[in-house]
């Protein structure tokens, strides 16, 4: 038997139901004709309902406003992520992370003998500049 509260399920179901109902209502409100009888609904009844509601063009204006707001938010977030959160290419965080154990040795011979040509067993991270020097130099 499942233990616990079902309040989250009820919340998300009611939110989904209200959103879908509002969307269906807006679509029907936007496309329903004013001067035609639809099945058993008379056009006078449709006109009286449409007189209570705001003008249809406000629905389109509101939808366009919301869509442009979403477009602006997506564009602003994309620019913020690219300009502020992306590290520079010369930053060490583009290659390694904060948990790296980078080997820092001042003597080149010690680095070559102890770390470069021997297996590090995954405990140490070799500096990318020294690795590139070893791989791509003509020496």
Automatic annotation (TrEMBL):
Record's catalysed reaction(s): a 1,2-diacyl-sn-glycero-3-phospho-(1D-myo-inositol) + UDP-N-acetyl-alpha-D-glucosamine = a 6-(N-acetyl-alpha-D-glucosaminyl)-1-(1,2-diacyl-sn-glycero-3-phospho)-1D-myo-inositol + UDP + H(+)
UniProt entry tagged with the keyword Glycoprotein: no
Entry's transmembrane regions: 12-32, 58-77
UniProt feature coiled coil, ranges: none
GO cellular component, one term: glycosylphosphatidylinositol-N-acetylglucosaminyltransferase (GPI-GnT) complex
Annotated EC: 2.4.1.198
Pathway: Glycolipid biosynthesis; glycosylphosphatidylinositol-anchor biosynthesis
Principal localisation: endoplasmic reticulum
Domain of life: Eukaryota
InterPro entries, sorted: GPI_Anchor_Biosynth (IPR052263), PIG-P (IPR013717), PIG-P_GPI19 (IPR016542)
Domain PIG-P: 8-136
Pfam families in UniProt: PIG-P
Keywords of this entry: Endoplasmic reticulum, GPI-anchor biosynthesis, Membrane, Transferase, Transmembrane, Transmembrane helix
Function recorded in the entry: Part of the complex catalyzing the transfer of N-acetylglucosamine from UDP-N-acetylglucosamine to phosphatidylinositol, the first step of GPI biosynthesis.
Oligomer status and interactors: Component of the phosphatidylinositol N-acetylglucosaminyltransferase (GPI-GlcNAc transferase) complex.
UniProt protein name: Phosphatidylinositol N-acetylglucosaminyltransferase subunit GPI19
């Amino acid at each position: 038997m499942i233990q616990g509260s079902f309040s989250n399920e009820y919340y998300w179901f009611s939110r989904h139901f209200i959103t879908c109902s509002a969307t269906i209502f807006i679509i029907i409100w936007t496309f329903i004709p004013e001067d035609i009888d639809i099945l058993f609904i008379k056009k006078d009844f449709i006109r009286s309902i449409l007189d209570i509601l705001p003008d249809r063009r406000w629905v389109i204006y509101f939808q366009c406003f919301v869509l442009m707001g979403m477009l602006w938010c997506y564009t602003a977030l994309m620019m913020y992520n690219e300009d502020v959160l992306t590290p520079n290419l010369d930053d060490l965080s583009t290659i390694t992370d904060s948990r790296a154990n980078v080997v820092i040795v001042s003597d080149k011979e010690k680095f070559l003998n102890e770390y470069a040509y021997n297996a590090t067993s995954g405990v140490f991270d070799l500096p990318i500049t020294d690795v590139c020097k070893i791989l791509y130099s003509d020496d």
